Amino acid sequence: MTTHVERLVQQLDDATGPSYDARAELIDMGADALPALIDGLPSLGGFGQLTAIEVFEEVGDPRCGPALIGLLNSDNPTVREWAAMALASLDVEGAAEPLRRAHRACLEHATPPDWTEPDGIRWALTELGARTPVVPPLTARLRATAADDVPRWPSAHFTDIINDLADHAQVILYSQFWQLDAGREYGIPGTTLDWELDWTAPWEHLVEESRTWSLREASEAPVGDGIFVAPSWIDRSDLHPER
């Protein structure tokens, strides 16, 4: 006989409306909902599993760790990405090595490093202390102090940051711009530039291509009081961990 909580878990797959109500009720149930949610996870589709990950994060119980690690093997890249980030958000013990394997799988499948899945996995590894981004001295010195500890830099220094990162053999993947106004933070449009790098090229070529495109972006980027830039970059070891 199907219990009420099991029916709620099944409803997580229904994106027409029941999923949202089921999600809210499962979150309200807290840790009591976890056994049924974990047991029902394999039977859910991609939408249901993504919603389940949201429930896991809201409940914040580390018992969901093994289930999240299992989702790193999902056929759905978004499920893998969300599971990776949830493992870091929940500080799940023992998650670092499964995340490293997930990152290696991205490399083996030639997933571009600026796609959201490898980006999310790198973030998770960094949050868990299993990855240390290279932050050159000038870039570290120019970083703005923020209460939420999110890395960001005054956009007026964007060109300096680009050159500092490239001079230290870092490849910038993309940059986001933020406006801080009266204690509020919100994203603002950057530039219309869009580029793709040939990830089979030598690393030195990638560094200089990234520098060139990023400097073009900086020439068109918004600048002003309260405008900050948050570039995302990788080191050679992120693309070639064996080196």
From TrEMBL:
Alphabetized Gene3D superfamilies for the sequence: Leucine-rich Repeat Variant
Stored InterPro entries: ARM-like, ARM-type_fold
Name under which the protein is recorded: HEAT repeat domain-containing protein
Organism: Streptomyces sporangiiformans
